[in-house]
Amino acid sequence: MYRQVVMLVVYTSCVNWVSMVIMVTALPAYREVIQHIQTRISEGVWRAGDAVPSENDLMRQFGVSRMTINHAMRELLSKGLIRRVKGSGTFVAELSPISSRLILRDIHEEIVERGHAHSCRILHCSQEHASVGLARSLGLRKGSAVYHSTLLHLENGHPILLEDRYVNPAVSPDYLGLDWSQITPTQHLLQVAPITQASYAIEACMPSTLEAIQLRIDHTEPCLVMVRRTVSGAHVASLARHLYPASRYRFEGQFEAGSA
């Protein structure tokens, strides 16, 4: 089930506001369920403590599968908008202070969700010795073994992400032997090293000559770069630099309920 939704998107350069455009995008079925429940809550139709319709009721209402409803409910739970009580059902949660949040997404999941095909090319994959700066970032000693991979992710054959990642071997001893055509590094690391903490920085930059060639863009085209460091328990799991052509990708943040 898809519905046309109008979204306002603002594109910027490092200096000035450039333009505003209105994009029409298809809303995935689970997003429609989320939007419906969020609207009921925000408009006060459902108040804190009120019961949310059962999964069976929502399946009948939207004509979707239980998997789709579960997907929607998981996101609503992560946002703190609902709570589940075993044996009783799902209820609207008490609202908490507002916080800014960026949800960690996997590029494969994003592309497939848009109804497009994801593919990946391995540009580099090896074991290296950590420099002073890298060792500090990964919580290791200088010269410690680290895994280094550089992958190019494509959407319908067009480069959309250049991923340069260093991985702590302690969290994924088999990292270098994995088939990246079957699973992405993000998917793999979320499975073997669940994130307990993460930090990130996003900025605009110009690609290097090599990066422009790899992304098939002009070297004067600006890019968006996210540097992300993830921690799993007692270990820093990975340090990744994600480079996106600004004309093909955007980051979406949101304000949502969070703990004080």
- Helicity, in percent? 10-25%
Q: What would CATH call the homologous superfamily of the largest domain?
A: Chorismate lyase-like
The amount of beta strand, in percent, is: 35-45%
CATH fold node name of the largest domain: Chorismate lyase
Distance between the termini: 37 Å
- Helix/strand/pairing category: alpha+beta
Cα gyration radius (Å) = 21 Å
Topology:
Elements lengths: L2 E10 L4 E11 L1 H14 L12 H8 L3 H13 L3 E4 L3 E4 L5 E4 L5 H7 L4 E12 L2 H7 L6 E11 L2 E10 L17 H8 L4 E9 L3 H7 L7 E10 L2 E11 L8 E4 L3
Antiparallel strand pairs: 1-2, 3-4, 5-12, 6-7, 7-8, 8-11, 9-10, 10-11
Helix pairs in contact: 1-3, 2-3
Task: Offer a concise description of the structure.
The protein has 260 residues and is of the alpha+beta class.
Provide structural commentary.
With 260 residues, this protein is α+β, with helices and mostly antiparallel strands. It has 2 domains: 3-95, Winged helix-like DNA-binding domain superfamily/Winged helix DNA-binding domain (Arc Repressor Mutant, subunit A, Orthogonal Bundle); 107-254, Chorismate lyase (3-Layer(aba) Sandwich), CATH 3.40.1410.10. The strands form 4 sheets. A 6-stranded antiparallel beta sheet has the order 6-7-8-11-10-9. A two-stranded antiparallel ribbon has the order 1-2. Strands 3-4 form a two-stranded antiparallel ribbon. Helix content is 25%, strand content 38%.
